[in-house]
Amino acid sequence: MALAVHADPDSDLPASLRAMGLTTGVPTIVTVGAGSRPAQLARLGPLLEKVLVAVAHAVEATVVGEGDAGGLAEAVGAARQRKRASFPFLGVASDAAGADRLDPSHTHFVLVPADHTAGIARWTAAVATAVAGGNRSVALAVAGGDGAWDALAAHVRADRLVMAVARTGGVADHLAAALAGRPADNRAHALAGSGQVFAVDPAKGAAYVGETLRSALSRPDALGPAPAR
């Protein structure tokens, strides 16, 4: 069972979220990894459990992401269930989607009038802002295919800090490369130039990645992202 609200451009998003029993003004983690390949997602389980789930539980955060079934949403939901975590897991999806297209591990949904990837990305960024209120929010970029670029651009436009987890593949690796001054997709260099994106290397251990995420949620200005090339 999950609660859901419909939203449109005239909706009071914070009020709609509270109507579902969600608390606004809380630390918020937004997952970004649309278009990740199955092989990439299969490797993310331990990272999601030891970093995303552990930090969300510790700081009493709400986790927000795109709510369609499969992909990263399913991987996050599985990690949350394995750890028996209770933090809210809020999905944003098109209001044209049937119930069978929604990821069943979410606790709440915001259904929005969007019929393309960029539209869902903009709505997800807006919903995350409404959840966070005046609190901190971080977009966690792992792996990701073409669909992730729209999401990342939307979060940067929303003045949200983006934490790219290197070595997870796809878009996240392009961001890490751009931040290090190495060749990467031009979109990665453009995002890196915003000053709102930083990368973390999981080779330093899950505890290090988790502490970096916690720091970003409490003191984002202290991180000092590496300058773009």
Question: Brief overview, please?
Answer:
The protein has 229 residues and is of the alpha/beta class. It contains nine helices and eight strands. Helices cover 42% and strands 17% of the residues.
Describe the secondary structure blueprint for this structure:
Elements: E1 3-6, H1 13-19, E2 28-32, H2 38-42, H3 45-59, E3 62-66, H4 71-82, E4 89-94, E5 108-112, H5 117-132, E6 137-141, H6 146-157, E7 161-165, H7 170-179, H8 186-192, E8 197-200, H9 206-218
Parallel strand pairs: 1-5, 2-3, 2-6, 3-4, 4-5, 6-7, 7-8
Helix pairs in contact: 3-4, 3-9, 5-6, 7-8
Provide a descriptive summary of the structure in words.
This protein has 229 residues and is α/β, with parallel strands linked by helices. The chain has a single domain (3-218), classed as Rossmann fold. Helix content is 42%, strand content 17%. It is built from nine helices and eight strands. The chain has helices at residues 13-19, 38-42, 45-59, 71-82, 117-132, 146-157, 170-179, 186-192, 206-218, and strands at 3-6, 28-32, 62-66, 89-94, 108-112, 137-141, 161-165, 197-200. An eight-stranded parallel sheet has the order 1-5-4-3-2-6-7-8, with helices on both faces. Helix 5 crosses helix 6. The longest helix has 16 residues, at 117-132. It is globular. The N and C termini lie far apart (47 Å). Residues 222-229 have low confidence and may be disordered.
